[in-house]
Structure formats: structure tokens, C-alpha cells
């Protein structure tokens, strides 16, 4: 089969690799119809992880079941399914508590597992024609319709981006009427703002610098904040202070809470120093977003961190950062009584009801998709997505569009 294979820093190729096979009675094999390129894939692509040459990328996957093992009872050949990026056994101590992002069985080396990602077990990714799915009954989410229909993009995003965005709003304690700031308007940040609106937030600010992303923020009904125009914390506070309705509702002393109650970090360790940054980047400063959120979030507010922080990071600027060690303003976190939640998303906790929001027409996360490309275009797509150029906001690879794909 054809697959996207990591070769070296900033280089992937589409190559023939061995077809996957059933390895356990509880496995299935799917024919992939859509596979997303995730911002997290860029960490490996840029050489910022321990990925090795030959790894097949892709943890955002959906398709049609081709084969099932004799132990699979609820999924059958021909079913259309989408897969959580977390691979989970479904029965270990963490899985039975709904913490499928921390399965203790699926990865012999760590308390988490996933498709095609460094440090997340021996599993190939789904940026390929075929994919093996362990514990198929548990890990497959059945979806209606036919491949390539109007809901294909929406359903694919149930694999990672949509649940991760929703998880960010959970960690940040977004409730009806909440004030929310999301830092980062990549796919997860855009959908975190969208999920905050779905949950009834009164104000949602989304911070970024890329014009296409900021335009999408405005289109979905949130307030875009361009950090190249000045300190985003000050911009948000000034906007709130300049609203006579907000100011007219405050009692004396409440002007101390002109920040927001809920903050979401959808950037992670590759955040950029706002000093001297332009629309497409700037000097890396891993703590930039967290520092700004601690400043912006009101006393007793909450911060949800779904942007990735990882170690080892061979490309980091100093020895501490290479081990994921960063200085943070914890005294201010303590003084303000801010709640901080973080970690990988337990996709299974959310994907059923997010699927049903899509089916009911209440949610259309696929609005963020910018490109749908054949598998052969993956090398070019990675390069452009990594450069944040040409409107590459969210890219979906379609193996069936490749002229080399099998009938």
C-alpha cells in the first residue's frame, strides 16, 4: 500500500509499504478514506521528537472496515468508522474510568498510545491506504453515510481536533455566559473557540497572527486578536473596558476582573515571542502563551492547556527546554487561585455526543478544512502547512484520490 513515510527533518515521502494484517482476534483493518495532517505531526516533521526514519505518520483517521478478527462482535466489514487518536484497550484501570488517553496496556513503554506518533507505541499511522485498528470494538466509532459525503470532513475531525478543542473548554471550565480567550487559531484553537460558543460563552477572543486564521475566527462569530498589533492581554482588556455595557454592570472593585474567566492554550511549546513576531512566526518562546494566560485570566478563573508540551525535544533552544522544563509564574497562579488543567484528550469521552451534534446539524467542525488533497501531495502539503502559507489551515489527505491507489 501507499503511505506517508518520515525520512528526515522536514522531509516525508509517499512510498510503498507492507499492507497491515490482523495481529489479534480483536483487530480490524480499515481502508482509509480521510486522514488529517495535524499540527502535532509537524513536531515530528520538524525533528522536534524522537521519530525515526520509516515511521508512517497519521493519527487522525477514518475509513471503511475491510477485515475484522474473529473476536470482533460489534463492527463488521463495510461499516464506516472514525478512530480516536488514542489507542486504548477499554478494560484497564484508566480506561474503565474514562481516561482512555492514559491506557496502561496499549503501549509497553508509556501510559498512552496512538497511531503513527513518536513515543506512543508500535502502531503505524493512517496517512496510508490501509490501517490496522487494535481493540476494534472499543476504538471504532461508527458513523452514518457514505465515504466522500457532505459529512466526511466533520466526522474525520472526531478523531482528534474536535474532541481536543472540546476538552480544552472542559479543562477551562467554560460555562454559559463565560468570558473566554483562546491563544492559537490553528485547527484546535479555531474549534476551541467554536466549542466555547456552542457551550454558551458570552465573549470569545481568539489570538493569532495569520490573516487567514483570524478571518476564520471572525467568520465563526468570535473576536479575532492579532498579536502583531500589540500585547494581546492589553488588547482584550482594553476591548472589555471600552464596552459601556460591561463597565455599567460592574460594582466597585470588580474592575479587577476585566480579564477573562476561561483561558485556553492551543499553541503549546512552540509559541512565539510577541516581540518582533510577524504574521507567519517569530522567535520561539515556549512559555509565552502560558505567561499571557496567567496575566489575563481573572482571579479564581481557569486555564485549559491542550497545546502540546513534550520531551525530549531535540530542537529546543537550551538543555532545560530539551527536557520539557520551563520557568513559569506559579506564584501568580497561586495568588490568583487559578485552576490549571492539562493533558492529552480522552477522545472516547466526547466523540459519541459530538458525533450526534454533527448528525443533528448543530455542529459543523469541518468548516475549518482548507485543503483536501490526494495522498501523493502529502510532501508539499506538509511543507506549506508547516510554513503557515497559502491558506493551509487544515489539510485532509484522501488516499482514494491518488492515481496510484488501488481500486
UniProtKB/TrEMBL annotation:
InterPro entries: ADH-like_N, ADH_Zn_CS, GroES-like_sf, NAD(P)-bd_dom_sf. This is Glutathione-independent formaldehyde dehydrogenase. PANTHER family: GLUTATHIONE-INDEPENDENT FORMALDEHYDE DEHYDROGENASE, ZINC-TYPE ALCOHOL DEHYDROGENASE-LIKE. Its cofactor is Zn(2+). The keyword Oxidoreductase applies. Keywords: Metal-binding, NAD, Oxidoreductase, Zinc. PROSITE patterns: ADH_ZINC (PS00059). The lineage of its organism: Bacteria, Pseudomonadati, Myxococcota, Myxococcia, Myxococcales. The keyword Ribonucleoprotein does not apply. It comes from Corallococcus caeni. It comes from the Bacteria. Residues 25-144 form the Alcohol dehydrogenase-like N-terminal domain. Belongs to the zinc-containing alcohol dehydrogenase family.
Amino acid at each position: 500500500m501507499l503511505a506517508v513515510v518520515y525520512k528526515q527533518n522536514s522531509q516525508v515521502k509517499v512510498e510503498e509499504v507492507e499492507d497491515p494484517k490482523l495481529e489479534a482476534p480483536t483487530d480490524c483493518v480499515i481502508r482509509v478514506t480521510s486522514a488529517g495532517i495535524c499540527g502535532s505531526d509537524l513536531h515530528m516533521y520538524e525533528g522536534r521528537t524522537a521519530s525515526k526514519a520509516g515511521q508512517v505518520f497519521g493519527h487522525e483517521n477514518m475509513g471503511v472496515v475491510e477485515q475484522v478478527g474473529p473476536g470482533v462482535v460489534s463492527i463488521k466489514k463495510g461499516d464506516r468508522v472514525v478512530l480516536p487518536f488514542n489507542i486504548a484497550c477499554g478494560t484497564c484501570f484508566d480506561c474503565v474510568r474514562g481516561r482512555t488517553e492514559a491506557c496502561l496496556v496499549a503501549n509497553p513503554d508509556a501510559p498512552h498510545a496512538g497511531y503513527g506518533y513518536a513515543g506512543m507505541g508500535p502502531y503505524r499511522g493512517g496517512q496510508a491506504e490501509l490501517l490496522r485498528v487494535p481493540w476494534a470494538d472499543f476504538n471504532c466509532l461508527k458513523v452514518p453515510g457514505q465515504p466522500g459525503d457532505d459529512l466526511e470532513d466533520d466526522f474525520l475531525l472526531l478523531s482528534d481536533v474536535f474532541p481536543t478543542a472540546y476538552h480544552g473548554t472542559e479543562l477551562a471550565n467554560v460555562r454559559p455566559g463565560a468570558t473566554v480567550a483562546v491563544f492559537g487559531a490553528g485547527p484546535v484553537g479555531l474549534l476551541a473557540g467554536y466549542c466555547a460558543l456552542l457551550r454558551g460563552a458570552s465573549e470569545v477572543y481568539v489570538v493569532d497572527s495569520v490573516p487567514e486564521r483570524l478571518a476564520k475566527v471572525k467568520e465563526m462569530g468570535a473576536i479575532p486578536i492579532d498579536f502583531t498589533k500589540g500585547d494581546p492581554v492589553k488588547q482584550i482588556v482594553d476591548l472589555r473596558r471600552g464596552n459601556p455595557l460591561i463597565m455599567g454592570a460592574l460594582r466597585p472593585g470588580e474592575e479587577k476582573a476585566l480579564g477573562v474567566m476561561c483561558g485556553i492554550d492551543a499553541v503549546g511549546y512552540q509559541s512565539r515571542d510577541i516581540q518582533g513576531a510577524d504574521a507567519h512566526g517569530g522567535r520561539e518562546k515556549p512559555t509565552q502563551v502560558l505567561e499571557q494566560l496567567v496575566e489575563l485570566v481573572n482571579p479564581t478563573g481557569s486555564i485549559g492547556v491542550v497545546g502540546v508540551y513534550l520531551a525530549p525535544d531535540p530542537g529546543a533552544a537550551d538543555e532545560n527546554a530539551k527536557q520539557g522544563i520551563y520557568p513559569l509564574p506559579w506564584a501568580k497562579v497561586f495568588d490568583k487561585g487559578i485552576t490549571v488543567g492539562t493533558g492529552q484528550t480522552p477522545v472516547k469521552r466526547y466523540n459519541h455526543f459530538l458525533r450526534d451534534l454533527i448528525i443533528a446539524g448543530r455542529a459543523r467542525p469541518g468548516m475549518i478544512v482548507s485543503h483536501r488533497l490526494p495522498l501523493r501531495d502529502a510532501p508539499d502539503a506538509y511543507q506549506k502547512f508547516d510554513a503557515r502559507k497559502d491558506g493551509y489551515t487544515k489539510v485532509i489527505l484522501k488516499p482514494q484520490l491518488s492515481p496510484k491507489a488501488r481500486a
